[in-house]
Amino acid sequence: FSHPLTRGIICSKGRDLIQRHSHPERLRHPMVRRKSGFVRTTYAEVFDRVAATLASIHDQWGPTGVLNYTSDGYGGVKSRIQTIFFNCLGGDTRFTGSLCWGAGMAAQTFDFGGVRGHLPGDVVNSDLVIVWGRNPKATSLHFYTLLKQAEKNNTRIVVIDPIQSDTAKSLGTHVALKPGTDAALALSMAHVTVTENRYDRSFVQNHILGFDRFCQYLDRFDPETASRITGVSPDTIRKLAREYAAARAPGIWMGYGMQRYANGGNTVRSIDALAAVCGHVGKPGTGANYAAKSLAPLLNRPEKNSKAHVTASRTFPAPMLGHFLQTVDNPPIAAAFVAGGNPLNQSPDLNAAVRGFQRIAFKVVFDHFMTDTARHADLVLPAATVFEQDDLFVTSMYSHVLNYSKKALDPPETLMPETDFFLALAKHMGIDTMGFASPREYLDQCAAPLLESLGKDSDTDLDTLAGEYLRIPGHDIPWADKRFATPSQKIEIFSRAAESAGQSPLPCFIPPSQGEDRFPLRLLTCKSQRSMHSQAFVFEDREPAVSVNRKTAQNLGITGLEKVCISTRQGEGTARLILDESVCDRTAFMHQGWWHKSGAVNFLTHAGLSDMGEQAAFYDTFCTLSSI
């Protein structure tokens, strides 16, 4: 109960871990595809086949003939073991960018030089909290609980979201705007702040680079102009801007949805700039909070050290998986290894991704269940659950607390955890450069620099963290010393690094793409309360639902609650229709994560890239609905 974030409470996703662990359909044996389907095999046979296949591919094509698709799994440091193995083998083909948060990460790196967020509990120090494009009541129970506590202490809360989300319904004031126009709202608020002389002159002079150029750009975003873009009234824009500028300690807490458009990175940069000109950075209760990556640099990362063994490498943007796999050549992808993710559920334009995956001759997937990706594999290897192995968890994406999780149960005797598997495979193939001989030695290496900086001995004190947590002093309030990690050591509203990367040096508003006559509705595919991504949908057999408001349904000639066909340029599917006035006009809302058996929404989504960070622009998908 002393943990600063969870406080002894477990969310529905955490409770589902127990159900997943003991589920009768959970994989407990290595499986191989035969003509009759999947049958059990042995790890000895797996090692022989994998070793022979990799040796043959390296002889014919070199290291880049292998796709290493590694995602984060539970988020522990052990999720990188597959990458370490392939680095030591000489390299691979892997993805860059993100299906999750890449545009915002790139944006804050341009602006601040790094991605750091306040400890979530710091919201109780705020007198105003703007929850921007985030729905913590559904996606983050613990942060929502903190927001409720702050509201009880008279903190004013504003929720900015195109959808009247569960959070918007239950907290503070909802400001609804048109999807993809968040940057225009932020820039207009900055315009009001500057033209009414409400900005923090001292902070601007001492800690911001590019203020004068930014002011010139802001001239085009007066509230009347921004209102026509965003749908937010000029009076609301002015009121919110004045309130934010005048607040003692206002914090902005951003979600990831706002950067899942082609303009997503500039949206985050615009919000960063608003916080900067008001001087609301580096003090308790403030900040432009997007994510927290404070602890990761304090750990040793063996996957980085192992890069010394790489002789060849190739990359592609994660959102373009389908296009890449269908067109890659010289060398082709001859084998794929997938761990910690479910790309044939989570990638955009799944029709293309499935076709591309089917071109690969040999595919190995680690997972707990026969997922959409695993069903297309040649070898399916059971993964250990979070309860069955020790691991070091650095962050929940927005918390700076390190947790060492000791295993509570032994894995089934027929199951080999991934760290053990790749250590054994390396030994089988004569690879002696992994840099550690056991899973525990790997964890000790990861934690050593951090523990030593705190005066602890990694050989003994890692165990003392079991069941506890570690907060690193000096990281609760990022940028408190006002020394930013940019080349100028200032907040770079004008960023030469962005310019060198082919971006606008200033944050700018890029008008969002629009629908067409055939596909007039923007499709928003958001997280559900039950599942981080596709994990918990293993328990679902229903059809997905699509929500639109009554006006939108009537414009499409749909008059009642019925089953509908959803069509996009990428594909089509069926869903139950829900009429919901919480959804804005010309927009359809669905939860993502449904498996193929139910109707995975990513068969519908567009495989485009954001303006920076190689982020998937999921929300630039347009659809239509028709009655069945």
Automatic annotation (TrEMBL):
Which SUPFAM superfamilies does this chain map to?
Answer: ADC-like, Formate dehydrogenase/DMSO reductase, domains 1-3
Ranges of residues in domain Molybdopterin oxidoreductase:
26-426
Q: Which UniProt keywords apply?
A: Iron, Iron-sulfur, Metal-binding, Molybdenum, Oxidoreductase
Q: Which residues form a coiled coil?
A: none
| Cofactors, names only | Mo-bis(molybdopterin guanine dinucleotide)
Source organism's superkingdom?
Bacteria
Q: Which InterPro entries match?
A: Asp_de-COase-like_dom_sf, MoPterin_dinucl-bd_dom, Mopterin_OxRdtase, Mopterin_OxRdtase_prok_CS, Prok_Mopterin_Oxidored
Molybdopterin dinucleotide-binding domain location is 531-620
Question: Which GO MF terms does the UniProt record name?
Answer: iron-sulfur cluster binding; metal ion binding; molybdopterin cofactor binding; oxidoreductase activity
Assigned protein family: Belongs to the prokaryotic molybdopterin-containing oxidoreductase family.
Identification of the protein by name: Molybdopterin-dependent oxidoreductase
